[in-house]
Amino acid sequence: MASSKKNDVISVAPPHSVKKFELISEYVKAWIQILMLNPKCKGIVYIDCMSNSGVYKNDDGEEIKGTPLLVSEIIADAMQTYTDKKAYIYFNDVREDKIDLLKTRLPKQTSNFQIYTEVMDANELLRTIGNQFATMFKDMHFCWCMIPMMRI
Q: Can you tell me the distance from the alpha carbon of 6 to that of 152, in angstroms, rounded to the nearest whole number?
């Protein structure tokens, strides 16, 4: 089993975390397709309050994509089909080095697909963007992820 230090930018994801990445990705695939077909839905907002670097190593030491990269790719792909809808993604972590690495791996933004990255406490992020919910995000649907990767 690969080891991970708390200060590593790329963390080791144990098998249960890899499964979490898969489950959240499958959920988002279904969630976005259902919502994009709803004429009342103008778009989606996905918030990951503890995104980490988006890159992990599995137990074999192989680099794998975590939830931020998998989800952003799913949403970016959907926005190519649903060009009349908008997607806003927020990725946050308390460590700047993790967000810096994440930014190098994210899909390209388009006019209807925007990604925002922040470096702050998760609660502070939600307070900061909370004011936008009633104005900028009117008629949008939300999904947020605040599940920290468990360390054993």
A: 12
Q: How far is CA 50 from CA 3, 35, 78, in A?
A: 21, 24, 23
Q: Give the Cα separation of 101 and 48 in Å (integer).
A: 16
Q: How many CB atoms lie within 10 A of CB 105?
A: 15
71 contacts 47 by C-beta, under 8 angstroms: no
pLDDT at 95 over 70: yes
pLDDT tens-digit readout, 13-45: 999 999 999 999 999 999 999 999 999 889 998
Q: Residue 147: which pLDDT band, with cuts at 50, 70 and 90?
A: very low
In angstroms, the CA 57 to CA 37 distance is 36
The phi, psi pair for 147, rounded to 5°, reads -100, 110
**Which residues have CB under 8 Å from 117's CB, separation 6+?**
90, 91, 92, 99, 102, 103
